[in-house]
Amino acid sequence: MQWYKNLQNEIDRTIENIFENRYNFPHDSAEKTFFEAMRYAVEGGGKRVRCILAILAYEYVSKREASRKERAIFSGIEMIHAYTLVHDDLPCMDDDTLRRGKPTVWKQYDETTAVLVGDALQTLGFELLADSGNAQIVQEMTRALGDLGTVRGQVRDTLLDQKNLSLEALLRIHDEKTGGFIASSLVIGAIFAGAQARTIETFRRLGFLMGRAFQIKDDILDIEGDAKTLGKTPKKDDKTGKGIVALVGLEKSKEILQDLEMQIKSSIQGIDDERITEITHFIIHRKK
């Protein structure tokens, strides 16, 4: 998918420019380390799926290519996504030491720095989204991310007894931690382009299906993948008893993923953009 690689590169350059322009002033040693840690968390890897989905939805509705300014606004989604990863990796959460093929932020720097980096990336992400001048976009992301969204899912993931979860309860966690964020990425692009309510809800339903598929594929890769390919520590779910593979087994997990693929194909029949079909295939059939 050359178009996907091109968008990845454009987003990477946009993020680099944001940091270069934002921190273009003299700063002391503490600031220097902190700003480096922020860039370390965001740059140097990442599929950029959420930002790309926002761009695709925007371009589908508006019928034109996203401008440099619009890509900068959508890059706020990547800042927020990086915040969730930095905090998720902390010892008090998932206690991960490897992310995107390099030490996690808390491991590379320290836990205090990682907490502050996550805080700063979250607020920077919302600042960039607010540059849209559209309060509905900011509200969409706050709902996806906060006490009824990603944070709520993390609470369940952290505090509930995973071994006694039903499949329905686990999928609810997937929806809250992953599905809502991916759905809102699509919705934000559609809203910014002036989409009608029906189109927005079509993208929202598609996003939740994509989110479930993304998380289930992650759980399968955790079992079948290796650290070099994945860029993170594999088989953690197997050790902790978390995830859909631990709950229903590997083969059943693959069957559920196949069923989701069929639902997604049905959902995108009315969306005339081959790139959305291709990114869906990528999410489900990726190797990392």
The profile of the biggest β sheet is: 2 strands, antiparallel
Name the average pLDDT: 93
Helical proportion? over 70%
Structural class, from helix and strand content?
mainly alpha
- Sketch the topology as an H/E string, one letter per element: HHHHEEHHHHHHHHHHH
CATH topology: Farnesyl Diphosphate Synthase
- Supply the CATH class: Mainly Alpha
Q: At the fourth CATH level, what is the homologous superfamily?
A: Farnesyl Diphosphate Synthase
Low-confidence stretches: none
- Going by CATH, the architecture would be Orthogonal Bundle
- Read across the widest sheet, the strand sequence of neighbours is 1-2
Q: So how many helices?
A: 15
Outline type: globular
Task: Give your account of this protein's structure.
It is a single chain. The protein is an all-alpha fold and 288 residues long. It has a single domain, classed as Orthogonal Bundle (Farnesyl Diphosphate Synthase), CATH 1.10.600.10. It contains 15 helices and two strands. Strands 1-2 form a two-stranded antiparallel ribbon. Helix 8 (150-159) packs antiparallel against helix 9, helix 9 (167-192) crosses helix 10 (197-224) and helix 14 packs antiparallel against helix 15 (274-285). The longest helix has 28 residues, at 197-224.
